[in-house]
Structures are given as structure tokens and as C-alpha cells.
What does this fold into?
Amino acid sequence: MKNTDVPIVVTQPFQVSRNRLWEAITQVSKMTQWFFENIKAFEPQVGFKTQFKVQVEDRIFTHLWKITEVVPQHKITYNWQYQEYPGDSFVTFEIIEHEENLILRLTTNVVADFPDTVPEFTRESCIGGWQYFIQERLPAYLKQ
It folds into this structure.
């Protein structure tokens, strides 16, 4: 993923209350059920920082998140980096009203290049990962 790439955008419609969708993307007890199960802490407050490790094969990815923007019930943005690798991005979750549904729009904006030698940092991998979380895991969780 390069800072010259256009942002990655993944959307998904939901027929749930705004509050339920907001809680799913901002409350750690709910996030661990559809997103990353090893998130230790998360608070939708500007300046809040958290970190957690994910292992893929022999590679460790220590996620470093810092909340940079919160509009309660509407939008949350966090800076997303990894301890072990260069690269920097911002991820924004926006809840948008559309007719009788809500649309969740996820945008990833890369501001510093990630290494292209790591398979998880290809644009295709990032798109596939977000589609998995936003279009498969989150809808399945919200249907419970």
C-alpha cells in the first residue's frame, strides 16, 4: 500500500439502529466478536491509544492505533501503524443514512508507504481484509 494509491473504500448497508452499529464498531466487547479478538482496550475518545498483536505464519503485526477523530454515532477515525514495519495510514468508519438503511463506509488512506515485500501490505490484501470484516464478519455479528 502506497501513499500515492487512491484510498480504499468498502461499504455495507445495514438494517439496524444507529446505536447498535456504533456500538459494534466502538465497544471493545463487541469489536472482539467480529473484528480482532485480541483487542485489549478501545475507547472512542480522541487521543486514546491501544495496541495488540496479530500473528500470521511467522510474522508478528503489533497494531498501533490512536483515535484522531470522533463524531459520536456518526464517525470515528484512527491512525493505524505497525510496530514492526514502516508505513502509516488512517482508517475511518462512517455511518451514513441512506433511504431506510444505514451504510457503513470504511476508508483507508495511506499517508506513508508500507513495505511491498510483506504480502499483507498489498492493496489487494487490504481490500480483501476490509471486505471480509465489513461485508462478512460485521453483518454476521449484527444478525445475532
User: Anything to note?
Assistant: The chain has three helices and six strands. The chain has a mean pLDDT of 96.
